[in-house]
Amino acid sequence: MTRRAGLLLAFAGLAHAAAAAAQDAEPAVDAPSIVTALTEEEVRISSNFTGAKIVLYGVAKGLEEGDDVVVVVRGPVRPLQVMRKSRTFGIWLNGRPARFEGAPSYYATASTRPLDLIAPPNNLQRLSIGADHAPLRAVGPRAAEFAAQIAEYRRAIVRVKESGGLYRDEPGGVDILEGGLFRAAVNVPPGSLTGRYTADAYLFRDGSALAHKSTELRVVKVGVERAIHSIAHDRPILYGFAAVCFAVVMGWGAAQVFRRR
Amino acid sequence: MEIYLPIAEVSVNLLWLLLLGGGVGFLSGMFGVGGGFLMTPLLIFTGIPPAVAVSTEANQITASSVSGALAHLRRGGVDMKMGSLLVTGGVFGSVLGVQIFGALKDSGQIDVFVSVAYVVFLSAIGGLMLMESLRAMRQRDSGQAPPRPQRTRILDALPLKTKFPRSGLYESAIPPVAIGFLVGLLAALMGVGGGFIMVPAMIYILRMPTNVVVGTSLFQIVFVTAFTTVLQAAQNQTVDVLLAALLIVGGVIGAQLGARFGQKIKGEQLRAGLAILVLLVAAVLVFELVRTPGEMFTMMSPT
Predict the structure, then answer these.
(1) How many Cα atoms are found within 13 Å in the side-chain-facing hemisphere of A120?
(2) Does the distance separating the beta carbons of A240 and B298 come in below 8 Å?
(3) ipTM for the complex shown
(4) pLDDT of residue A29
(5) What is the dihedral of CA A193, A197, A201, A204, to 10 degrees?
(6) Which sequence spans correspond to the domains of chain B?
(7) Do A127 and A34 fall within a single domain?
């Protein structure tokens, strides 16, 4: 799908949803609402994948001066093993791993202003908006020990993920256009896990969320990447034999080609 | 042009991978060494996860050794009986190595382990090669012959003696199995063929005639690296065939060019050059290990 076509479709979807929302909202005239659409609902990881940039468009009905829009994109949640380095005999070794659950593999926020100006921490935490508010918890045999240091580990997770582009926080990442139309860029870097992502848009007024809309985004591997990855994990022994056969044929074949010349 | 590697899950420059394969292939063609001990650390410097670098290298070494092994086989340069014992030991070493590898990967220690193992090996190999080439340079100048290897008597006392007709030997089957075991262990843990250990061991410990040493060593390497590849794929899912394919393409071309180039050049200076390169790679690894890291935390998703 070309970018232009994607954009058109996104707008078509938006118009349709806006119309539907308008009908739904008929009884309570003043209740604000949000509709959103993505320029692409599927990010395809192929062999030339160096990251994808898609745009979330939305309409906030009943948007008033001073309101804020927050867009949160969350990737699939996976357990994490975090290790603190320590110096042993002059060498930096990884310490014993701390296990955590609840951290999204990908987490991006974009907003009209910095989050702490939009709403008090409690309200953000309840909606788990902001990487600092991901529902992280220590698990495993030494959970109690690590739970005590969870704030430090949380900061480390956010920092490391941010350096890989998997966590991002962009205050000012939401542009408000005319008539309650807004947009936010969503960057999906290489190293993003495949699976279902959610893109949530919130309308904030006076520190609380008045309206919310969730859209789904899929990240999939396609083509050769997908074939290789799925065979490697689903049929690992077959994969190993295929790798060996391939190596033998290549090594032997190349030598034949060179010998003939 | 960037290419996304499906198992390593990183985007790497395609041309750089081909050049890397070609460059290391060139050196291995010129010196007749496998090149795994250079390729694995260079892949790690490139940003490939160490676990993937080690396992994928085993796959590449199969490709780079198979044509040489076949050529020696046709020429009768393989002691099949000795080779089989070396393979047997190698298979057991590889099984143990892949278990250790998996345990280190799960506990998050594999990166540091691979680095430390490489520092030890590269320093030893580089140091020995440098001394050897310096000595050869001196000897050529003074016209002396190299000293003959001493006969090792302890090994003659080992049981399970058997005949090796192709090598013209009658000796215990235990040393070849033990040597093969060590080499298999290294193939799984470090992604090297192990020729740099096996060849001297065959000459000095097993006392095999030189005309079957290289062929038999390649024979063992093909089987053991192939076995290791299947095992790593089955147990750790760390073999990236796309990465292997690119390295193989660069590698076979580089090796052919290197072999031609190597015939025209004086050996000792080149060997000294390679030794310095190996020591340099070890120095970079040491620097990475002792340098205070900018980020004190690392993380991984357990599988």
Answers:
(1) 4
(2) no
(3) 0.84
(4) 54
(5) -70
(6) 2-144+161-290
(7) yes
pLDDT at A26 over 50: no
Give the C-alpha separation, A27 to A33, whole Å.
Answer: 13
Which residues fall within 8 angstroms of residue B114, CB to CB, at 6 or more apart? Answer: B40, B44, B50, B51, B53, B54, B189, B190
Quote the DSSP letter at residue B7.
T
Per-window interface: A 176-235 vs B, CB < 8 A: 190-191, 221, 224-226, 228-229, 232-233
The residue range of the domain holding A33 is 3-220
A237 and A144 inside one domain: no
Nearest to B295 among A90, A160, A190 (CB): A160
Q: Are A250 and B11 a contacting pair at CB < 8 A?
A: no
What's the domain count of chain A? 2
Contact A251 B245 (CB under 8 A): no
Please name the residue of chain A whose CA is at the shortest distance from the CA of residue B60.
A247
Q: How confident is the model at residue B106 (pLDDT cuts 50, 70, 90)?
A: confident
Distance from CA of B65 to the nearest CA of A (A): 7
Residues 76-95 of A with CB under 8 A from B: 78-85, 90-94
Q: What are phi and psi of A74, to 5 degrees?
A: -115, 130
In the numeric block, which tokens belong to residue B49? 């996860």
Helix (H, G, I), strand (E, B) or coil at B78: coil
